[in-house]
Amino acid sequence: MIRKNILSIEDDEIQLSKKEKFFDGDRQKIPLDVVDKMVICRESEFIGTKGTAYNKEIYCAKDAHVESNTKIRAIYSESNIIIDEGTELLRWADSEGTLAIYDNCNLGISVSSGERMSIGQNCEFRRMYAPEIYIGQYPIKLLNPKERKDKKVYCLSVQKRIKRNVRYISNEMANEEGVVDYTIVSSENVRVTENIIVQGDIRSHKSVRLFDGAIVVGNIFAEGNVILGINSCVIGNVFSQENVYLESGATIGQSGTISSLVARGNIILEPETFVFGYVSCEKGGKISRSQYIPSPEFHTFLQEKEKVKVLTFRDLDEYEDVLRQGFRHNEIIEEVIIPDGAKKIPKSMFFKCTSLQKIHIPNSIEEIGDFAFMDCEQLKEISLITGQNLKRIGISAFENCRFLETIEIPESVEIIDAAAFSGCANLRNVIFEENSALETVKDHAFQGCVSLIEIKFVNYVEIASDNTFKNCTSLKRIYIPDNQVVKIGA
After folding, report:
1. Which residues on adjacent β-strands are paired with residue 202?
2. Strands of the 392-393 sheet, one edge to the other
3. Beta strand 123-135 with 117-119: parallel, antiparallel or unpaired?
């Protein structure tokens, strides 16, 4: 409300639900003991003075630094926030950027960050949210949540095949790849022994215990307690009707996704644990203290996550280990270089990457998966002609890539699947190589390509599907080789 009405400020009053007096942090001296008016900082960094009680909300357009032993009702920053040790929040703290919280804080109802969050030791909380939460850690040294965890689990899909009333999950239940490839539903306590990978969910009417290094690819739902041992991991969500306890190195979720940790009772988190997303408990949560982790002498802002504009891969293994959801909805990437040896661009891998402009595809690619580049509205440059092994362009692979002007189809391509280029409003040139192996063009493949004037098939092709060129309002000419077309659809 403050941001929306900030232009209405007049005589140190702002119109919210009613007119509110406030301290202008850019030009007024704020009291050092008790502050009973809102504080608004539009141009300068906010410094919450040590030991002061701020009884109304604080709004910062820039960074904010709350010094130690301060009492705050609520604080919001469009940038980054530091909360020093001993701070008491009555309601909430929210940063659009990063949020660094130090030791011995009471975090009120909610703390949240749009980027990433680190929280020190001996802190109490109710709700937390950030795409990355580093617990019992500090900005100067964030640990790697994937360390000492089997990387292959981040590419496994959740198995729905069910085994019932299993109590102990051990090596004897694993397949040849060392994975227990089913979901467990049990009316008993469930224990997963050390370093076991469960490729499904675990649902228990009692409690669930993961011993050290155990991994669950799906979710955990438990009526009783959930305990995650040292370096264990749940890639999905964790829900408990009672309490949840995370030991050192335990992780919930993974970078690039949003998971939830929810308990009806208490949540106890040891230092050096990780959650990617939401944390919520009805009876209160606490981050414990470790005698092995000293508090830092200097307090700093948490560094923002590096924004990669040109996406490259160290090797083929790194490309093939990409998380199942790929890079969808990434608004930063402008250029992608697919490594040599890759055979497929997976389904939805770059879906709605709204800044993506250029893609390098190697000769080894055999398939562009469904929705791989759908809604990449800035995409202008892609060379498929280098992909001499490419056989299939998937469903909606380039749908709504409205700045794409030219596409060259290699002779190896056999299928242009449904809606592959639908909605490519500026597509003017579709070029097929002379010895094209194209056999099928499916439903809506070029629907809505309003700039397409002509298309020339150079060999046998079946346009049996419906609406292939629907709403191609500029289309004047279609060239078809003699005696080659089997059927033209509706």
Report:
1. 184, 220
2. 344-345, 367-368, 392-393, 415-416, 440-441
3. parallel
| pLDDT score recorded for residue 391 | 94
Task: For residues 411 and 31, give the distance between their C-alpha atoms in angstroms, rounded to a whole number.
Answer: 75
If one counts every other C-beta atom within 10 angstroms of the C-beta of residue 186, the result is: 19
Type of residue at 395: I
145-188 pLDDT, tens digit each:
998 888 888 878 889 899 999 999 998 999 988 899 999 999 99
pLDDT of 27 reads 85
Residue spans of the chain under pLDDT 50 = none
d(CA 101, CA 300): 10
pLDDT at 11: 77
**Spatial distance between the Cα atoms of 162 and 40, rounded to a whole number of angstroms:** 56
Q: pLDDT digit string (tens) for 331-346?
A: 889 999 999 999 999 9
Please list the residues that pair with 81 across neighbouring strands. 64, 99
DSSP letters for 246-258 = E-TT-EES-TTS-
Could you tell me if 329 and 353 are in contact, meaning their C-beta atoms sit under 8 angstroms apart?
A: yes
Alpha carbons 236 and 277: distance in angstroms, whole number: 11
| Cβ pair 426, 400 in contact under 8 A | no
Backbone phi, psi, residue 7, to 5°: -75, -10
Residues 6+ apart with CB under 8 A from 270: 135, 136, 246, 247, 248, 250, 287, 288, 290
Half-sphere exposure of 380 (CA within 13 A, CB side): 5
Q: If DSSP codes are grouped into helix, strand and coil, which group holds residue 7?
A: helix
Please give the model's pTM, rounded to 2 decimal places: 0.75
At CA 326, angle to CA 400 and CA 369, rounded to 5?
55
Q: From residue 422, how far is each of 119, 346, 466, 480 by CA, in Å?
A: 47, 19, 13, 21
221 and 203 Cβ atoms separated by less than 8 Å: yes
Q: 106-115: long-range contacts at Cβ-Cβ below 8 A with a sequence spacing of 24 or more?
A: 108/74, 113/81, 115/302, 115/304, 115/305
Q: Specify the residue for token string 């019932």.
A: 164
